[in-house]
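Slide 14.
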Amino acid sequence: MDATRYALIRELFLAAEELPVDERAAFLRNRAGDDQQLIQEVMSLLREHDPVSARKEGESAKPVQPPLVSATPVMPTTTGKAGSPTPRLLSSESHLQTTRRGVAVGGAQITQHGAQRTHASPRYRDESTKRRSRKTSIVWDQRTRRNRRWNSGWLWVAAVLPTALVGWWTYRQVDASLRTAVSKELAGVANSVTISTQSFLDDRSQLVESWSRQPAIRHAIVELADLSRQPDAVTLLKAAPQTDLIKGQLQELSGSDDVKFVVWNREGTILASWLEDRADVGSQVAPSGAANLVRVFRGQRVLFGPERLTDSADGLVPDTSEPVMANMVPIRDDEDRVVAALLVRGINTFNHFDDLFREASQADGLDAYAVNRRGVMVTRSPKAMYLAGRISLELGPDDVAANLRVSDPGKPTGPENVGTIHRHALPLTLAAAGATSGQANEQIEPYNDYAGIPVVGAWRWISDWQLGIVVEREYQIAFAPARIVRFGFLFLAAMLTITALAAASQIAKQSARAHAAVHPLSRYELLGELGSGGMGVVYRARHRQLGRDVALKVLRDDRRHREDRLRFDREAKLAASLSSPHSVMIYDYGRSEEGEAFCVMEFLKGITLYEVVTRGGPQPFGRVLFILRQICDGLGEAHKLGLLHRDIKPQNVMLSLDPSVGDWAVVFDFGLAKLVQPEAGAYQTAETVWAGTPMYMAPERYRDPAGMDPRSDIYSLGCIAYFLISGRPPYIECDPESLFALVLSEEPISMKVHRDEPVPPELVDLVAKCMAKNADDRFESVEALSARVDELRSDFLWTADQARQWWKIHGEEA
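Slide 15: predicted structure.
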């Protein structure tokens, strides 16, 4: 699951957990709507949850006011030692899980359960996202904005609101009328084309069937069927005079010398055809035509094509490159048994059929065409031929019919992407998919056609002949009148709004200047927004006098309750108590007279450990130990002060290049930190469920969220080591219940499976001891873990030169 869904699940869990058991299901259905998976995930958490243990931590805490969510993700607070070797960048909020160059995957990949989890599981992927770099409005000009809103409000009400209301009403009326008219027009054209097509094909099929009942033709074919049962049937059939009789009769009845025919017996053997040399006599029906032959021998009339003929296995070359359309009818003997099948073509059936759709496409902007069961266009659409002439469909104009698959390319096609579209691998358009599934419908909401152009349309399906009818019109053309009305009123409203805002700005200018001069943050210049989360917004800022970049965190406007302010205070104070160079630093903290709580933090530069693996894959063993040792230094100080981090993960450790020592790791985001022994009278959060990132949380945190033990952080350190060595987290599962089961009962996949090479036993033992299910089996403290890491580092060296080489290859944009 991603960070947004994770937060939604926790919010619903907290709300449902307060309700009686018999009311929870109805509450979730009301909140989650049709999202059954979301309901099942929350219900599974409620079944696993132990409310007695979970409330131990919150018994003495003050209730959280709605809509505050327990364990709400907060922006990373930072503290550290002044004079750190390298400048640093605070990437963004932990639960946003963003870095300067990448995004943490919060469960998008899947880990199979038990024996089903193998090295074939997908590896951890990079899902990079761009950092927001837009300029952000000044956060301390609340009074300025309030004055501007007040002064512009009455101007806007007087000038813009009436115009907007009239414009909205007019547009809605025009749009509703136009939608009705477009829908009726499309439905009418589709019905008309369908009726014409059905009538034409019925008439043509009945005509061919009447020819097949002519005594001379029928008796000749029955005699050929009898000959096919003789021992030397092929020789007899090739010399049979009945073939010339059939050909002559069909030419006379059709009035065309170009008429062509083929006769098959029940075994699919060709008995006769129009070919002079009779080379195809005795050959079998092509596999693609076997289904049609079966239907004919059931007594049905069958339409062949429109289809383009290809060279046969017998070496026969098609007599035409144009689409072929033919009628197949059964031949009955004197006892009314179907003994043969007759196919007749060459009577201009396809051209007459295509003319029906060409005439329907004459109206402005209409595109009418037919599709077969496979979603292939079988007529010469004028629009498709025009686009093909512009090298937009990867087909020539003469190759469109019976070749173009009506699939959605996703974007308008053109010469720039010729050769990149593989239509058989793309889904059919909405119209083609609806028609081939046997539906009849109209769609006036835009969808993409076969050229990626937004259209509206109607479609029908003729089951008798297995053909779909599609009528479409470009959306821009169909709704041009409504668009003109809408943009006209929008332009007028925009001009009036600009006028009102300009007037209001002049009125508020003097007040703004006076207010900004006395604001406690007026000495900082905002450079852009870094991230936003459940509690606050973090900006990149620069001290106007010192020229130093900082990370400025401001409590969100909707988080001004007393509980929120106390939580924000706690975060800043806990982070400020740390002084390790491997922890971030707090520079300033306070509130403005408007109630804006802010915290000025060290601005970290570098990349998170998640992105280290994303860029470079599994890391060298020496580097893993080197980084782990530095994290232990930062975390060890926190533990000595009785402070647990509770959210140690690769996304909360920043790595940069120090000129002297090489890699330099910094732990940040103490938003979920807790004191092991809270001080009497001190503010405590009312967390009733687990808080943190599930895939890196120790098992006991699931069983007893209130349990406070430094060894839980050691478990998370083991997960980081596993991630750096193997290149992926120890557990990945999108379903929370399955993830909990894996963490509580399953051992992670061996690191050598993901790394594709052996891992030294001493490192395997180190990770295994950190990640032991029972906390008593882990290292008793971070200091004990640090001592073991120091013992191993002599066997797995990692030098500053090696670090510089890695950063030269993988960290040029850090």
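Speaker note: Confidence is low (pLDDT under 50) at residues 56-139, 676-691.
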